[in-house]
Write a structure and sequence with these properties.
The complex is a heterodimer of chains A (about 150) and B (about 300). By secondary structure, chain A is α+β, with helices and mostly antiparallel strands. Chain A is built from three helices and nine strands, in the order αβαββαββββββ. Chain B has about 300 residues and is an alpha/beta fold. The chains are: A alpha+beta (about 150), B alpha/beta (about 300). Bound molecules: zinc ion (ZN).
Chain lengths: ~150, ~300
C-alpha cells in the first residue's frame, strides 16, 4: 500500500485516467496537449494491474477533461477509465466510449477529401467496427485503422 | 427530400422503379413524344470541373420534360465564386432552383452540399468518389440489352483499380446475384475495399480469353497512360487488353459490351458494327435514366 501511495499520490482536484493501454500514455499526453496546460501531470508507465497485464496511468491536477478530450481518449485507448476528482474524492466516473460519430477530432487521410479543402468544414467519421475501432469518413468514405489516426 | 449522393441512397425498389420509368420515357428522350412532367421546374447544373457528357445529358433530360436549366459548365466560369466556399455557393444556387447537379473535383463534395442544400443534390461525380447516375444508366443499359439484371455473368476489364464506375457498378450489381469476372493486369486489380463487400461469386483473371465465352456482359474501361511510370510498360499492358471484332468471335452471340466513354483505342472501331456493341446506346441512355431520376426527385407527386 505504501508503495502504491508513492506511485500515485492522491490529488485534491483534477482527473485520473486509469487503465490506459500500456505504452499509450505518452501519446495521450501529447495528443490531448496536457503537458502544455501548465498544471502538474504525472504519467505512470507499465503499472502492474489485475485486469490487464500492464497499464499506463495519468494524473492531471486541477483540470477536468472535457467531453471532446474524452472522445479523443476513447479513440486512443478504448478501455481507459476517467475519474474526476474533487476534494480528494472521486466525484464523477466518466464513461470512455468511442462515439458512433466522431467530429473534429481526426484528420481525413485523403488529401483530396472535401473536409480537408473547405473552410469551416469539420471532419466527420462514423464508427463502422466496434471491435477494431475502424472509422470511416462520412464525406469521402475513406476508412482508417485505429493505429493510423492523425489527430487534429 | 432526398439527395442522391451515392447509389447506396437508393434501395432496390427505387432503382427498379427508376429503370422502369426510364424505359417508358425512351420516346420522350428521343424527342418522339412530348412531356411536361417537370414544367416550370429549374435544374441547376454546377460543374466545378468540366464533364460535357454528364452536363448535356442532364440538361437534355430536364428540357425534354418541360423544365429548364441554369448553371455553369467549367471552372473558368466559376472564377467569380473564388474565395467562396462550396457550402455558400450551394446555398445560393439552391435558392434559385428545384434541384442541383454537382460535379466537383474533390471527394465528398456532394455529401457536403447535401448537408447545406434546401433542394435535392444529385452527385454528378465527385473526384474519385461516387457517380450514381452513371451507375443507374449502366444498370439500365444492362437490363435493356439483356432483358434482366438477375444472375448475370459480368466481366469488367481494364483499369479496375482506379475506375470508379466499375467500383460502384460492382456494388450495385451485387444486389442482383451477379457472377463477376475481374480482368486486369495485376497492378490495376479491383481493390479489396470493393471485393470485400461483394457477397456474390467473383474471380480475378489476367487474360480475357479465359472467360470471354462465359460472359453475358463485358464492361470495358480505359487504362490510362498516367498510371504507368514507364511508357513501354503502358504500351505492353494496354495492348494486351484491347478488344476487336476478331477476338469477339469467341463470345456468346448475345454478349454485350459496355464502356462509360469516351474511349481511346481500347475498343477497336470494327467492334462498333458488331451486335455486341452497346456503348453508344449506353451513352444515350443517360438521358432517359436522368429524366426518371429527376421526375422522382422533383416531379409532381402522383
Ligand atoms: Zn474524407
Amino acid at each position: 500500500m505504501s508503495e502504491n501511495l508513492l506511485k500515485v499520490q492522491p490529488i485534491r482536484n483534477g482527473t485520473v485516467i486509469d487503465h490506459i493501454r500500456a505504452g499509450r500514455g505518452r501519446k495521450i499526453l501529447d495528443i490531448l496537449g496536457l503537458s502544455k496546460s501548465g498544471t502538474t501531470i504525472s504519467l505512470l508507465v507499465n503499472v502492474q494491474s489485475k485486469k490487464q497485464k500492464r497499464k499506463d496511468m495519468i494524473k492531471v491536477e486541477d483540470r477536468e477533461l472535457d467531453e471532446n478530450e474524452i472522445e479523443k481518449l476513447a479513440l486512443l485507448s478504448p478501455n481507459a477509465r476517467v475519474n474526476i476528482i474533487r476534494n480528494y474524492a472521486v466525484a464523477e466516473k466518466k464513461e470512455v466510449k468511442i462515439p458512433s460519430f466522431i467530429s473534429s477530432i481526426v484528420h481525413c487521410p485523403n488529401e483530396n477529401c472535401i473536409s480537408n479543402n473547405e473552410r469551416g468544414v469539420s471532419s466527420n467519421f462514423k464508427l463502422i467496427d466496434e471491435e477494431t475501432h475502424q472509422i470511416q469518413c462520412t464525406y469521402c468514405g475513406r476508412k482508417i485503422e485505429e493505429d493510423k489516426l492523425n489527430f487534429l | 427530400m432526398k439527395h442522391i449522393v451515392s447509389i447506396e441512397d437508393l434501395d432496390n425498389k427505387s432503382i427498379m422503379g427508376i429503370l422502369k420509368r426510364a424505359k417508358e420515357l425512351l420516346p420522350v428522350a428521343k424527342g418522339n413524344k412530348k412531356s411536361k412532367t417537370l414544367d416550370g421546374k429549374i435544374l441547376a447544373t454546377c460543374f466545378f470541373e468540366p464533364s460535357t457528357r454528364t452536363r448535356l445529358s442532364f440538361e437534355s433530360a430536364m428540357q425534354r420534360l418541360g423544365g429548364s436549366c441554369i448553371g455553369f459548365a467549367d471552372p473558368s466560369a466559376t472564377s467569380h465564386l473564388k474565395g467562396e466556399t462550396l457550402s455558400d455557393a450551394i446555398r445560393m444556387v439552391a435558392g434559385y432552383s428545384d434541384a442541383v447537379v454537382l460535379r466537383h473535383p474533390r471527394e465528398g463534395a456532394a455529401k457536403l452540399a447535401s448537408e447545406v442544400s434546401e433542394v435535392p443534390i444529385i452527385n454528378g461525380g465527385d473526384g474519385a468518389g461516387q457517380h450514381p447516375t452513371q451507375t443507374l444508366l449502366d444498370l439500365f443499359t444492362i437490363k435493356d440489352e439483356i432483358g434482366k439484371l438477375e444472375g448475370l455473368k459480368v466481366g469488367m476489364l481494364g483499369d479496375l483499380r482506379y475506375g470508379r464506375t466499375v467500383h460502384s457498378l460492382s456494388q450495385a450489381l451485387n444486389r442482383f446475384n451477379t457472377k463477376f469476372f475481374f480482368i486486369s493486369p495485376k497492378s490495376l486489380a479491383m481493390p479489396e475495399h470493393v471485393t470485400d463487400v461483394l457477397d456474390s461469386h467473383w474471380s480475378t483473371h489476367e487474360n480475357l480469353k479465359e472467360v470471354l465465352g462465359d460472359l453475358d456482359v463485358l464492361y470495358v474501361t480505359r487504362i490510362q497512360k498516367e498510371r504507368f511510370p514507364d511508357l513501354e510498360d503502358y504500351k505492353k499492358v494496354a495492348g494486351a487488353y484491347k478488344i476487336n471484332a476478331e477476338l469477339l468471335k469467341n463470345a456468346k452471340s448475345k454478349m454485350k459490351i459496355l464502356h462509360p466513354l469516351p474511349r481511346v483505342d481500347e475498343i477497336s472501331t470494327d467492334v462498333d458494327e458488331t451486335k455486341h456493341a452497346a456503348y453508344f446506346r449506353q451513352a444515350f441512355n443517360g438521358v432517359p435514366v436522368r429524366m426518371a431520376l429527376l421526375e422522382k426527385l422533383i416531379g409532381a407527386k402522383k
